[in-house]
Amino acid sequence: MPAIRRRIRPPRFPSRTFPITGHGAVGDGTTKCTQAFRQAVEACAAAGGGRVLVPAGVWLTGAIHLADNVELHLEADATIRFSRDPADYLPVVFTRYEGVELMNYSPFIYAHGRTNVAITGSGVIDGQADATHWWDWSSDPAPSEGPDKKLLAQQAESGVPVAERVFGEGHYLRPNLIQLYRCRNVLIEGVTVRDSPMWNIHPVLCANVTIRGITVDSPRGPNNDGCDPESCVDVLIERCEFNTGDDCVAIKAGKNADGRRVNEPSMNVLVDSCVMRDGNGGVTVGSETTGGVRWVFAWNCTMSSARLERAIRIKTNPERGGYVRDLYFKDITVGQAADSVVEVALNYENKHTGPYFPDVGTIDIRGLRAGTAPRAFYLVGNPGNPIKGVRVSNSVFEQMAEADVVTDVSGFELRNVRVNGRRV
Predict the structure, then answer these.
(1) Which of helix, strand or coil describes residue 268?
(2) Residues 6+ apart with CB under 8 A from 150
(3) What is the tens place of the pLDDT at every residue in 88-104?
(4) At 358, which helix (H) or strand (E)?
(5) CA-to-CA distance for 178 and 270, rounded, in angstroms?
(6) What keywords sit in the KW lines (predicted)?
(7) Number of Cα atoms under 13 Å in the Cβ half of residue 413
(8) Which residues contact 233 (CB under 8 A, 6 or more apart)?
(9) pLDDT tens digits, residue range 209-243?
(10) What's the CA gap between 44 and 117, in Å, rounded?
(11) Beta-carbon neighbour count of residue 235 at 10 Å?
């Protein structure tokens, strides 16, 4: 872990500043500033890089696309408020939806193939999604994402080229709030993000990523994950706070046929001193595990909420395949959880058999202290494909209401562990 930590260094930028007001932006919350953001980014990049400055005010805009050597900086009392009109996120761009590549609505802040990009400051990035904008696409009645999710999955299984998987206008696959795709040297620091259409912060196929001191305040939205590094290498997430409608931190690696085609893992992910409140999982791996996940370290994190379902969660199934191993958790404090404190489930979505059994094991948990929850452990492998090794040491589970569930596990080891006051 120390060797990984030394490699991860945030990018630096030239000391040039390009205020969006210099390109016609008006911070009244009603004047659309999309063109001003575009011109400021272009001017900054053309000069060799620097800072695109968002001053105090409320700045309404469509998609913002970053360029090489550009830092998007929000001053105190600055809010970037994104338009609720889907047309403001066209033309379609190369993106991922739940682990599958496609052409779709642009993420609200987006970069593809860039080097040295950053989003910094103390302002707010507001996706403005709600029950009648974007979130209503998540379920029936129509229009909803269900038919498009099915179509995209069929195209991926059939090997349709990504350039021909065109969604966007007339379709209902929600974009992410922030997605940086195949970027190197990434920094997201200080900002507050809220109310994304779907996942809030989603680095994909990136290397050398620092996410520091951010707040994700998005507890009401469906699939409103906090931060989902996918198929990334060398990622640091530190001193962040998550209050989400789904997993707080979820480490992913592509899904099913498309994950096998791209075949890129997530490796070397560090989660340090974060706070997790509402969410389906505190630190999660999956369910998109097809490219593999390895060397994840999480420590000094605090997790507690009546709506935090699990603290540590690994989820996958026999359609995903891939591997999940070498996960290390240390000094995690859980006040309250609504389900299991630790869950490793290889039957996600109630799928117990399939053609691609995942290889999951070598999970080490040390110094975990949990207050109240229904149970300490929910560990469910597949028949004939067990979870291969979970070690828990020097940990306390104070008030657990129900018995643990442990099936199809090879090598479940407890050392100095107490549950309800009794050593187990």
Answers:
(1) strand
(2) none
(3) 999 999 999 999 999 99
(4) none
(5) 20
(6) Glycosidase, Hydrolase
(7) 13
(8) 206, 207, 208, 265, 266, 267, 268
(9) 999 999 999 999 999 999 999 999 999 999 999 99
(10) 12
(11) 26
